[in-house]
């Protein structure tokens, strides 16, 4: 609960600073906005395939306007990721669901031309809670320790319908293994790797002030 309260406090501060820094007209140097949508997630290494795990992705952003086309931005997000079993998944997997809750802070570079904005960057995530359910339905969270720090690469774009509203689609992949333990032993073919490397497709609505 304290981590959620800290997240909300930082988010409020982020927007207070952003809005106070904004001006109107050509001299404007900062812009703020809100984003809300969902992640479709999967994790490589658990023998579960497909982006079947749905989770919230919401928060705020602040952009520094370098010129008419280029922006550097920071987002502060609550992001739910993980993996979920489907009927076609490998029965050898020991997992049924992996639920991960992060506070994320992506640092992004935006290039905008007309109504289309292309984006690339990196993200730091802090794991605030998680739950792992095995194929029998048992909670095995305490048996599988995870790292708290996560780094990801982010690519994507946004289509703006007008100066305020847009549709945002991102793809991201973890750069580090979230599992704690020795994963140096070669993995037999068809077996779980012992690594958690996640991938996400994120679809969000964007509102810029």
Written description of the protein model:
It is a single chain. The chain has one helix and eight strands; from the N terminus they run H-E-E-E-E-E-E-E-E. The protein is mainly β and 209 residues long. It has an eight-stranded antiparallel barrel with strand order 1-2-3-4-5-6-7-8.
Provide key terms for this protein.
single chain; 209 residues; 1 helix; 8-stranded antiparallel barrel; mainly beta
Summarize the structure.
The chain is 10% helix and 55% strand. With 209 residues, it is mainly β.
Structural topology:
Layout: H1 2-21, E1 30-44, E2 53-65, E3 70-84, E4 95-113, E5 116-134, E6 149-160, E7 165-174, E8 197-208
Antiparallel strand pairs: 1-2, 1-8, 2-3, 3-4, 4-5, 5-6, 6-7, 7-8
Number of domains: 1
Uncertain spans, ≥5 residues at pLDDT below 50? 185-191
Helix content: under 10%
Strand content: over 45%
Question: What composes the largest sheet?
Answer: 8 strands, antiparallel, barrel
